Each structure stands twice: as structure tokens, then as C-alpha cells.
Sequence to fold (243 residues):
Amino acid sequence: MTAFERPRETLDIAAVTAVAALEDDLRRSLYTYVRDARRPVARDEAAAAAGISRKLAAFHLDKLVRTGLLTFGYDTVGDVARVGRKPKLYRPADTEIQVGIPARRHEILADILAGAVLADSGDETAREAALRIAAEHGERAGRLERDLARPGRLGTERALTLAETVLTRYGFEPGRPAPDRVQLRNCPFQPLAAKAPGLVCGINHAFLTGVLTGLGAHTVEAALAPGAGCCIELRPVEGKQHH
Fold:
């Protein structure tokens, strides 16, 4: 799965739950122990390290599994084979858990910029490559949403509604001040946007234009509109508004 396939919701409830699970001192201690061990850890070992009963350790370890912070399997401990049921062994999960308010999607921008560097063609500059790749990824995201929604021919308001759905997932925090307009109240590419506004605004514009292309939203355009949040807004193409 790439950064541009259907992402999780902006406020990832699973990630929030995982982080909240570590608020408990004992649970955080067990998680740290398993992570630092660099090998599978059995309940008995974790309990002894924390100075608690095996039953209590099992309760907290299984809670960490349910929140996605740990995984488990059944195996022998070291080189010692056991008779009967193999012990439950815990490992850190491979998934990366992040919670950001407002949403930041640095992996998307990194993917675009890395693609631009790897393109390394004499036919276009790195900036041109970044804009092209951003548009391609935006188009992919819009096409995915269209394939899921199957909306048929899109009028302006329906196109904007579908665009809102896509852009909410990418952290743009879209708002609808009028039926025919979508404003983006957050730039998910901060803080780089503050350091290189021309580059990031260009990437935003290319990505959002690509989203509209993928949706088949031919009556809507992504237009520069500097202000709070993102520097782009979605609005009808003059002379092409349809309901």
C-alpha cells in the first residue's frame, strides 16, 4: 500500500487508542520491556521483569495486542522445548503509530519528493518532476474514490462533495462556505510549507488538480486562494457549472 492509496481517517481512532493505552505506567513499562528485548518475550518473563503476577502481566500484554502495539505467537522459549502447549510470546508490532492534530502527512510529501529525485531525467527539472508526480498521485486518489462511489456524470456540487471525502482523508480539513465552493483549512504538509511555500503550494495545486481529474470533476478547478490553512480552494470552472 502506497501513501496515495485510500488512507486512514485524519483522526485515527486506532492510533489514539494505542497511544492512550500507554498512559498506564505498568502497561508502558511492559511495552518498553518487550520493545527493548529485541526478541520474543513470554508472559512469565515480562511478569518477573515488572514485579507483578503472571495473570496481571497477561492482562496488560493482551491489551497492548488489542491496541496494535504488540503482536504475539506461540513458540519455544530459547532452545528449551516445552511439553504441552507452547507459551505465548510477544513482539513489538511493525506498524508505525502517529497521532497529529492538525493532521500532517509528511509521508505523502516525502513520496513525491523522492519520486522527483529518482526520476532524474534531463527532460524536466526536479520541480517539474515533483509537480508531475503529485498530479499523478492525486489522480490515482480521485480515481479510487470514483471507483468506490460510482457516481456517474458529476455536477459541480456532487463533484465537490466527493472531493471533500477524499481530501478529508488526506488531512486538508475541507469546509463548505457555499454549495459551490470548498475551502481547505489545513495544509497537511506543514512545516515545510512555511519554509518553501512556492514549492509546497505548487505540489498542493498539482495534487488537488489530479484529484479532480481522477474524479472526473470537469466542472471544478483547484484555484490558488492564499489565506488561512491551505493556499488552494475548489470552485466551479467559469462557464461550466452544472447541478
